[in-house]
Amino acid sequence: MDLSFLARRRAVATLLALAFLFLTVDPLMDLRDGEGWLHVVTELIVAGITLSGLVAMVWDMRREKALRSRLELDLQDAHSDVVRWRGEAQGLLEGLGQAIDRQFQRWLLTPAERDVGILLLKGLSHKEVAEARQTSERTVRQQAREIYRKAGVGGRAELSAWFLEDLLLPDSAQQHRLASEASPAGEEE
Questions:
Q1: How big, in percent rounded to 5, are the helix, strand and coil portions of the chain?
Q2: Are residues 74 and 22 part of one domain?
């Protein structure tokens, strides 16, 4: 929620408070001046409606403030989790990066193909890779085809699977192996 929205809500609440103040003072002055009861009661009803709106608005503002505080704490927790995970996984990620680079060398990928391969593994589209490498999308497509050919895979998904297949969690890996053994040869899930 942006600050201008909150500032507008505070301004409206202030105006409602001033209207309530006016609408409660005016009937008292009207009584002193001899106005009829119907007129005074009508103004007090309008004052009550104004007060109800003011109370509802202040209640909502407090609830939104509490929600915003909780969301900010959740965001801080999530950020802390990311920082912790990165710290814990840093060595593993460096090792994975080195292993990927060694495999790219075994496949005899050119430096340009290795760059494209890494960006494809990160999930970038051909267009995004072309923009990042300041080249044409057509060139990236050709380089991707060459990577797949040299790696002996059918496309991006198989390339990713080539590196990530063994990264399943221990329980998941065993379930995956059991499922593979149970399904007939050549049958895809």
A1: 85, 0, 15
A2: yes
